[in-house]
Design brief:
Largest sheet of chain A: 6 strands, parallel
Number of strands of chain A: 10
CATH superfamily of the largest domain in chain A: NAD(P)-binding Rossmann-like Domain
Oligomer: homodimer
Number of domains of chain A: 2
Shape of chain A: elongated
Helix content of chain A: 40-55%
Strand content of chain A: 5-15%
Radius of gyration of chain A: 21 Å
Number of helices of chain A: 11
Chain lengths: ~300, ~300
Amino acid sequence: MRDSESLGTVAIKGVGLIGGSIGMALRARGLATRVVGLGRDESKLRRAVELGAIDEFTTDPASAYSRADCVVVCTPVGSIVEDVVECFKYARSQAMVTDAGSVKGTIVSGVLGSAGRDAERFVGAHPIAGSERGGVEFSRRDLFENRVCVLTPTDPVCKDSLQRARAFWRGLGCSIVETTPERHDELLASGSHLPHVIAAALAASIPIEAIPLTAGAFRDGTRVAASSAELWTGIFQANREPLLKAIARYEAELTSFVRALESNQEVEIKNWWLRAQQRLSTSRAESNPTVNVDA
Amino acid sequence: MRDSESLGTVAIKGVGLIGGSIGMALRARGLATRVVGLGRDESKLRRAVELGAIDEFTTDPASAYSRADCVVVCTPVGSIVEDVVECFKYARSQAMVTDAGSVKGTIVSGVLGSAGRDAERFVGAHPIAGSERGGVEFSRRDLFENRVCVLTPTDPVCKDSLQRARAFWRGLGCSIVETTPERHDELLASGSHLPHVIAAALAASIPIEAIPLTAGAFRDGTRVAASSAELWTGIFQANREPLLKAIARYEAELTSFVRALESNQEVEIKNWWLRAQQRLSTSRAESNPTVNVDA
């Protein structure tokens, strides 16, 4: 399949921030012939139509999946496996199925374990974009532009589905990175899940009286602590081991700062700070991530 | 002195981001008859004139201070005491002297200990505004608009100087909060210095390969780690004990998250997250900080 071909009818399961933004981008870019939203709450789905996120909606899985050429599951990570399995009950034999979950190991192995041969049409995906504000009201057609989407194809994936998943996410404006589910989860534990944990820990630790005297450092440092408790509890639990390791690495860095400050060693404090800065600039200078890039 | 009176000739010692922004605001708002920049590096001072941050410059302390009605010292925290003491060697007997240091305890006690009777004309101040990008090039005339400026007047401060310091900072667009130097340092340790430390610890802990897969959470969470190593080493050292306490409080929060995640307790993880969120919203709802507000 060439990238310029239509994706046909796309079914989006879960039309919140991510699902709604996918729908808006598909419609704005003319990538699909029809965008169907599938969910449980009719009033939210109706709102998604009003906002231009989807062409139509249904609460009936059979109705949505039986006519879809592509399906993207945008529900919370704890629901994705069962949603994908349900999709395969009704989907056409040629349909490509992908998801947008922030964790990949548990999802991909769950689908492999439950979907039988259908699993070859599932391509795990994680478009790295979002907001601390959930819901279709905050959807944006440009949410995925110039963002990375990680695909985690595993052994039984058929070539056709993989090519269509690449075309799907690339069509939304993403550049594609491919790696294993396990590697994805390790990297995202450090780069996304840890920053969420420390934002909340900062919020939790500040004395109420100090907040009126805060400025940009505190505001930016706690921004993502406003994210949904349900969503993030699910992500943390689905990525427990890699996240615990990332936190341990982070705590070790914090401890080396504390040691330097306790002993009041100017040079050590400064070098600690400079080392952190250098890591940021080194990494910005590296144009190629070490994972496999398909672009 | 009424707030609408001219501040007269203002000398700014140290024309970087903060000093430059003060000069721009004074000039844009017509608050001073003359804004004189004092520093050591002529090329930087010349650039400050070009950028409209100051009317003129000198590298001679006597020349700047002997004609100033107000002096604001905007050098790094480790230099402020000696700069204030030097200022008193040349300043007029009526001149009001203030500073913009991010730490107040060591500075105020240093001035009290070194300046003799002149200390009554010094009003410690901390306008809570800044940027991770230093230097006069990044100065902005609106940097202080709608920001809080903390004043830490101590016993020998004369009424006239205090009123003029209030008028000075209020004139730049700040609302004024007054408290003790020690209380300031405790509150800022949690609300500003700690967020800087954890931003750098996050930057230091991330594997290089994970950075291409980061998005807003990591970017915002590490933004202030780009701040000057020299400036921040000085701030951390000048506020060691309160900062160590703030870090310990923060580490305890992080540890309680780790315990909940280790035992995979969904309810505990979620409640930890909700408690952090609640702290942010509670504090936003509180309109009055518990410190004394003069507004």
